[in-house]
Design goal:
Shape: globular
Low-confidence stretches: 1-48, 335-346
Region (Disordered): 325-346
Number of domains: 2
InterPro entries: AraC-bd, AraC_XylS_family_regulators, Homeodomain-like_sf, HTH-like, HTH_AraC, HTH_AraC-typ_CS
Organism: Terrabacter terrigena
CATH class of the largest domain: Mainly Beta
CATH architecture of the largest domain: Sandwich
Strand order of the largest sheet: 3-9-4-7-10-11
Structural class: alpha+beta
CATH topology of the largest domain: Jelly Rolls
Number of helices: 13
Keywords: Activator, DNA-binding, Transcription, Transcription regulation
Mean pLDDT: 78
Protein name: Helix-turn-helix domain-containing protein
Helix content: 40-55%
CATH superfamily of the largest domain: Regulatory protein AraC
Number of strands: 11
Strand content: 15-25%
Length: 346
């Protein structure tokens, strides 16, 4: 997808030479995380698998974007995730939102998710993500030995819908995630426990449950294949012509079959996904560039201004021109405009 380059992070977590030397071995084995099934039209269908290290309780890593380990998928481990550079679209379950540097989230087991940065063709965001992953079995076993950890149990349950943190919780969380990345052994585990306590004690106005109590979580290979093929196709062609027939062909399915499985995997129809992602991208252009509204429409895949204005108004609640004139504190939060149906917080 061609777009404006993402914003550089204001925070850095490049580790020292010793850490990078140790990390290099891990990155050489990253391909193990992508198990492939049948190749569909030359594209391998990725399955997320988190390899267990026999001498480590948790998995801590940084990675670039684009990367082989990025993409729409799910895994049984909890994932604490920090974005340190670029802006883009964030998908968790049936939620479509946006992210910027400092985006901190906790994704619960088996909740499909993806972060896609707005980058120029050929551009790479080095060390875009800092990630901590751990299994439910491990954290429950630790709770059995350390009863004080019971205070994080409710927070972990909430994370099955995806948690995005803000305010002081987010910036303290980012600092602690980076500390975890830069440490090893007992010190690293200590930072994780501190992070879980921080999330568990977060004020209600500093976290949001982003996905609905979702009926469409993909549990079968066909749904995962349709979701991954469809989302990859949309992101690769967001500024151009997007057709359901092409997406179905890339998934090696008929259009009705693809539509059924795509909705099962993502919680919404293919056309709704295209519209929401295009309008989310248009808003980022209006916020971060001097492009005219007509240019933003074209860059967002809309060749008809009347249709662009109508779709933007339906999603955001105001026209693109009026939106651009708003002060930043008057603009609707991205998580509100980008998703029609809001899940209850309790």
């Amino acid at each position: 997808m061609k777009s404006h380059a993402g914003e550089e992070a204001k925070i850095s977590y490049r580790s020292d030479e010793e850490f990078h030397a140790a990390e290099a071995g891990r990155r050489d084995a990253e391909a193990a995380r992508s198990l492939t099934s049948e190749a569909i039209l030359g594209q391998a269908v990725r399955r997320e698998y988190i390899p267990h290290h026999p001498q480590a309780s948790i998995r801590v890593l940084t990675h670039d974007f684009p990367s082989e380990i990025c993409g729409w998928g799910a895994h049984p481990e909890y994932e604490i995730h920090l974005i340190t550079k670029t802006r883009g679209s964030f998908i968790a379950g049936d939620h479509i939102g946006t992210f910027a540097p400092g985006h901190v989230s906790l994704i619960g087991p088996n909740l499909p998710h993806d972060w896609v940065s707005d980058l120029d063709e050929g551009q790479v965001a080095v060390d875009r993500d800092a990630v901590i992953q751990f299994s439910d079995d491990w954290i429950r076993a630790v709770m059995g030995l350390i009863p004080e950890l019971a205070e994080v149990s409710e927070m972990l349950q909430r994370s099955t819908r995806g948690l995005v943190f803000s305010g002081a919780t987010a910036w303290r969380g980012a600092e602690t995630i980076l500390a975890c990345v830069h440490s090893h052994g007992t010190e690293q585990i200590g930072h994780l426990l501190k992070l879980l306590a921080l999330f568990a004690h977060a004020p209600t106005d500093e976290y949001e449950l982003v996905a609905s109590e979702w009926m469409g979580r993909p549990t079968d290979a066909a749904s995962r294949d349709a979701g991954e093929a469809g989302l990859s196709y949309i992101f690769d062609n967001l500024t151009g012509d997007i057709r359901l027939s092409t997406a179905a062909r890339l998934a090696y399915m008929s259009e009705p079959t693809f539509s059924k499985y795509f909705k099962t995997a993502t919680g919404m129809t293919f056309s709704s996904m295209v519209k929401k992602l295009r309008i989310a991208y248009a808003r980022r252009l209006l916020d971060t560039t001097e492009d005219s509204v007509a240019q933003v429409a074209a860059l967002s895949g809309y060749n008809n201004m009347a249709n662009f204005n109508r779709q933007f108004l339906a999603e955001v609640g105001t026209t693109p021109t009026a939106y651009r004139r708003l002060e930043s504190d008057q603009k609707p939060p991205p998580e509100v405009f980008s998703l029609n149906r809001r899940a209850p917080s309790h």
